[in-house]
Amino acid sequence: MGQALPKPALRPFLAADVPVLAAIFVAAIEELTGDDYSEAQQQAWASAADDEEQFGKRLAGELTLIATIQNSPVGFASLKGADHIDMLFVHPSAVGQGVARMLCEALEKIAGGRGAKSLTVDASDNASEFFQKRGYIGKQRNTVTVNGEWLANTTMQKTLGEGAASGVPT
Ligand SMILES: CC(C)(COP(=O)(O)OP(=O)(O)OC[C@H]1O[C@@H](n2cnc3c(N)ncnc32)[C@H](O)[C@@H]1OP(=O)(O)O)[C@@H](O)C(=O)NCCC(=O)NCCS
Q1: pTM, to two decimals
Q2: Residues 6+ apart with CB under 8 A from 148
């Protein structure tokens, strides 16, 4: 945090990105979510990237954007269908620099441009404050089983269009 790194940039997902995105996914879970989830829960969650082929299919099947710093991926986000943010993960070495904000803002613009009236996300307890700051409102508390572990998250929703006028700095 606070290091004078160059500004992040965005680009579309490429198949060759899968290993580095899997590594970002695992590192973000292991290093950033320990206050909200137990080690067993973190391991179960991170195991979604164990099968890289499956993980790559998930990324390729959604609209996935990559954030880079000096051409190296540092985070990614994906839009599932017309109006659901499936994944948003930033490498621990790049947090606190607006990477997630940039990714999320881009997905909101793309979804809005395609006619979505609102966006939903099943936000981790770690990320719910981030989404709240962007104008997402908690709708429903969920408990999901992942690889034998129960994990809590919150379905949050943001009305698009109004978001642009909600005073959220971008
Ligand atoms: C949540 C996450 C994506 C945020 O990434 P980031 O690049 O550090 O976020 P940004 O720097 O763009 O932050 C934007 C704003 O949200 C705030 N914010 C970011 N993460 C936050 C957190 N965990 N708790 C509270 N506020 C947070 C920042 O302080 C910043 O606020 P500001 O606009 O007032 O300065 C990242 O911490 C992460 O990958 N977490 C683990 C994985 C996870 O839970 N993903 C979500 C799955 S739904």
Answers
A1: 0.93
A2: 44
Place domain 9-164 in its CATH homologous superfamily. Gcn5-related N-acetyltransferase (GNAT) (3.40.630.30)
Atom 8 of ligand 1, residue of closest alpha carbon = 95
Tell which one of 21, 95, 142 to mutate to probe ligand 1, the residue whose CB is within 8 A of the most ligand atoms: 95
Could you tell me the pLDDT band of residue 168, with boundaries at 50, 70 and 90? very low
Phi-psi region of 21 (alpha: psi -120 to 50; beta: other; left: phi over 0): alpha
Atom of ligand 1 nearest to the CA of 127: 1
Model confidence over 143-155: pLDDT tens digits? 999 999 999 999 9
